[in-house]
Specification:
The chain has about 450 residues and is α/β, with parallel strands linked by helices. The chain has a single domain, classed as Luciferase-like domain (TIM Barrel, Alpha-Beta Barrel). About 35% of the residues lie in helices and about 15% in strands. The protein is built from 15 helices and 14 strands. An eight-stranded parallel β-barrel has the order 1-2-3-4-9-10-11-13, surrounded by seven helices. Strands 8-7-14 form a three-stranded mixed β-sheet, covered by helices on one side. Strands 5-6 form a two-stranded antiparallel ribbon. Helix 4 packs across helix 6 and helix 6 packs parallel to helix 7. The chain is globular and about 70 Å long.
Length: about 450
């Protein structure tokens, strides 16, 4: 039986994302990013199309590497202004029954004790439809805004490993499943004998009880998005789904294989990680109409804004280069995988500065799929079958029109071909992603090792 394709809608609580400027397109409504109705309507649209989840990116500061200032992204609406994505999820969850939600939170700057509480709350309020996209942060501007020194790339992942150990303890150890007895006759809500203090003394320190009773998943479904060497090791240990942006199939196959090897090296099965690739899809009833739509988007996409976004992703101030200069490999604390895609894994093609400013298919960015419904389906199926990918994150263009077109034109064709679900699987997000599994972390996941043992001392677990 052919693999069914998983699909997330990739959004951010901002006017536009990596394709800057598109909020101004006549069919776009990105200027409504700070209105709750925008997100409720989006969630209902996504659920109508049986989209697996709305994957919410986030950043804690502004991209200011280009020209040493944030002006270009501010003008173009590229990931700025940016609201807190966690605030959107309860409203979208209340408007849907099955749609899942991925929220980005940063291990470098978010206190683990507080984040564990917020994610447990969201998992409760969504009925177990929550996932956490674990990021370590690439922006030096975020470090300055937080009043700390930037942390080197690999060191961020070392800290994140310890961070994860602590939140696993809070989620998996602190409470027994039946600790919240809700006994009105005895007037006891929580049985103290079934709740334990967590003591953690690593890179992060904690001595306290998890503030929330167990949520449907206990540990939210875990995403990771790093595909550098160190990021892949981290994903192999922790991620249940990984998000990458390979531009060509050979790179995608290499990245998928590396995630699956990393999972096995962490004592897990190779298929314990679902891998999603970002993709920009532009679809219309005919190829000619789709190409015309692409030209429209290109007219609205901000060249300067795109350069500013890529400057932060690459850790290079692209304003200092001529438009025809090639991108060269440098080691940085930014997105190492993007630099490698433009310089090492691009089939010998020279990627110029002007290339990455355009609304085009270019190494270092996600692939473009433009065409009729049949052409888009052919391309998506080919990517899945040739690379081992499990699904896609649909990159935002002129929204919500772009997502509506995908749902109306592509989803029915994929369903006809048997490559897309005709109904949601029941249960939590973990059960939807792995229907053969359970709501809680599988036994071979390192987080499951932190579950409370019945022979442990009551009230305290180190």
């Amino acid at each position: 039986m052919s693999k069914q394709i998983l699909v997330n809608a990739f959004y951010m609580a901002s006017p536009a994302q990596a394709w800057t400027g598109l909020w101004a397109h006549p069919k776009a409504q990105g200027e409504r990013y700070n209105q709750l109705d925008f997100w409720i309507e989006l969630a209902r649209t996504a659920e109508r199309g049986l989209i697996d989840g709305i994957f919410l990116a986030d950043t804690l500061s502004v991209n200011d590497v280009y020209q040493g200032k944030p002006d270009a992204v501010m003008r173009a609406g590229g990931m700025f202004p940016s609201n807190d994505p966690m605030m959107l999820i309860p409203a979208m969850a209340a408007a849907t029954r099955h749609l899942c939600f991925g929220v980005t939170a940063n291990t470098t700057y978010e206190p683990p004790y507080l984040l564990a509480r917020r994610l447990s709350t969201l998992d409760q309020l969504t009925g177990g439809r929550l996932s956490w996209n674990v990021v370590t942060g690439i922006l030096a501007s975020a470090a300055r805004a937080m009043g700390v020194e930037p942390v080197p790339h690999d060191k961020r992942y070392d800290l994140a490993d310890d961070y994860m150990d602590l939140v696993y303890k809070l989620w998996e150890q602190s409470w027994d499943d039946d600790a919240a007895v809700r006994d009105k006759a005895a007037r006891i809500f929580t049985d103290p004998a079934r709740v334990r203090k967590i003591v953690h003394d690593g890179q992060y320190r904690c001595e306290g009880y998890h503030a929330c009773e167990p949520s449907p998943q206990r540990t939210p479904f875990i995403y990771a998005a790093g595909s550098s060497g160190r990021g892949t090791v981290f994903a192999g240990r922790h991620a249940e789904a990984a998000f990458t942006a390979a531009n060509d199939k050979a790179s995608a196959r290499r990245i998928v294989d590396s995630y699956r090897r990393a999972a096995q090296e962490a004592g897990r099965t190779a298929d314990s990680i679902k891998v999603f690739n970002a993709v920009t899809v532009i679809v219309a009833p005919t190829e000619a109409e789709a190409l015309d739509l692409k030209r429209q988007y290109a007219d609205y996409s901000s060249v300067e804004g795109n350069l500013a976004m890529m400057s932060s992703f690459l850790g290079i101030d692209l304003s200092r280069y001529d438009p025809d200069d090639p991108i060269e490999y440098i080691e940085s604390n930014a997105m190492q995988s993007a630099v490698e895609a433009m310089t090492r894994y691009n089939g010998g093609r020279k990627v110029r500065v002007r290339d990455i400013a355009a609304f085009e298919d270019v190494p270092g960015r996600e692939p473009f799929i433009v065409g009729s419904p049949g052409q888009v389906c052919d391309a998506m199926i080919s990517w899945i079958d040739d690379t081992g990918l499990d699904g896609f994150n649909l990159v935002r263009t002129a929204e919500p029109a772009g997502l509506q077109s995908f749902i109306d034109l592509v989803v029915p064709e994929l369903q006809t071909r048997g490559r897309y679900k005709t109904g949601y699987a029941p249960g939590t997000m973990r059960e939807k992603m792995f229907p053969e599994g359970a709501a809680r972390l599988p036994a071979d996941h390192p987080g499951a090792a932190f579950r409370h043992r019945r022979d442990a001392m009551p009230h305290e677990t180190a």
